[in-house]
Specification:
The protein has 576 residues and is α+β, with helices and mostly antiparallel strands. The chain has helices at residues 160-163, 259-276, 313-326, 360-363, 389-400, 433-438, and strands at 23-25, 38-39, 58-61, 64-71, 74-77, 81-82, 116-118, 147-149, 154-158, 173-177, 238-248, 281-287, 292-293, 335-341, 352-355, 374-378, 447-451, 457-462, 474-480, 483-490, 505-512, 522-524, 532-533, 542-543, 552-555, 558-565, 569-574. Among the domains are: 208-217 and 434-574, no CATH class; 238-400, Collagenase (Catalytic Domain) (3-Layer(aba) Sandwich). Helix 2 (259-276) crosses helix 5. The relative contact order is 0.17.
Amino acid sequence: MGGAIFKNLLPRYPFRMTRARIGLALTVSTVLVSTTLMVAPLNAAIKPGTKCTKAGATVLTEGKKFTCVKSGNRLVWNKGVIVKAAQKPVASPVQSPVPMPTPSATAVPQESPSLEPTQEPEPQPTQTQAAWKDPREGTPCDTEGAIIPNQIWELRCLMPSKVVPGSTDNQLVWFQNNLNKALPVIPKGPAPSKPVVYKDPTVASVNINQCKINEASSVRTVLASGFPVIAPPTARTGTVKWALIPIDFADIPGDSNFRSRMDGQMKLLSDYISVVSEGKLKVEWVVHPNWVRMPGNSSQYNVPYSDDPDRSPEIARFYRDLMKESDKYFDFTNIQVVNFIAPIGQTFLREGMQGFPWTRNVQNVRTNEGVVPAFSFAGGFFDASGRTYWSYWAHEYGHTVGLGHVGSSREANPYSGYDLMAIQDGPSRELSGWLRFIIGWLPDEKVHCSDLATLQSVDVTLAPLSETKPGVKMSVVRLSSNRALILESRRVTKFACNMPTPLNGVMAYIYDARFGHYEPFLIPVIPAGRNLETSDCQTISVPNPLLREGDKVTVEGVTIQVLEHGTYDRIRISRP
């Protein structure tokens, strides 16, 4: 997830001032998952069939989990299912992240994602979680960003100085992460309205091939960070058919109107793919109208973390069973991707699971109509407020068409928040111009190329990346055989989260060809003085790096100045 987590080399997934427990609201890439339970006091009995107020809500009491379901025109509590006591987790911290290259001293590298402390609710003991506290919380740890799953959510190895306001303590300790945070209400900012007339670049582009930087990473496979173009594992153009299949179990039945929460997500996915591919790729949905009832109860499956089906026997088994049962009712003819959904409130799939055209345990599963090349199954993580299914689907399909994951999804990542292939949850869910370029969605004629060796000064007018205006959409300055400075114009779109400073302006970033899939091959250029900003999505806080009229930065010997910002952005690229 986020991020999509499927890379074959992927690792698995209190503060000392008072020793008081601090709950953290943290979202990492798209791969963490949240299952929010309402916890009832021990003496609060729930009677099946009695009225409840919110479909999908769950309550733990007297050793059972009750779910609010729709019965006719009423919302009532179901019969409940017995909940087994959680097992003690086994520590499995992730490895330290790949060292991150940074631009020159005048470009400020992104800070680590902000982890915002939240007020911890009063503990409400139940038979399954009796005011439990992980004994490792607050104890020293060795690897910043390491994760240990536990029965609350997870522990993360962090410096208090980066998490707790006012702290200067840089000793790494384990913090309890409770994942969700309250979302602010942020109005959508206005689009730039200043009329800017499009003009051709003042200096013609050099040969475009000079800016097609060849990837030099040691991890290059079917997932690319740079040129040459890799043959697509699946279609990048034309029309592809996607399936949506809802599945449920006897102990957790599906709601009667799942389309009410899925139709908007499917439309956003289709619109997004059309926009970022410049209309070259269309998605056609085929939806199974009814829930496919799986044999047995949901307790026979347990997928706590996203992983590759070839590495996870549980995911491989679950996928085989899903396809076997669905094949009885659904015609998979010409389906390229099947997306499963589950009832809200389920706990058997915490984050999500996905498979791809190169995944052996996907390609070995045959339906009556043949093999379906790819699948995804969004877990409870995506049912939390401020998260979306469509961005998860789009991220996973980005991998399916050959795009690498920009940086890590479970460790500090400088480009998180600025590209859908770095983190699917936002704040910006753009697909960077460079990624569109390397798979042929952004054509050569919409890219202006300069070479540092011959660059003096050039004015370039940039059309907004995700709009249909004519003209150049990306300017690339070749810095060396394995580095390039990339400039593109971005605007607030219906796909993005809202931030206090709207996401309108010029994005500057570095491509480093020494890095590939799941490594930091894109590095943002962030002007000095830009502070972390929150958004109205359940995601990390990041600085807004976009350059606006009058802004000027110098990075690796190149100065970028925004001359005009409005319907287009006009920039000057020069060597001091």
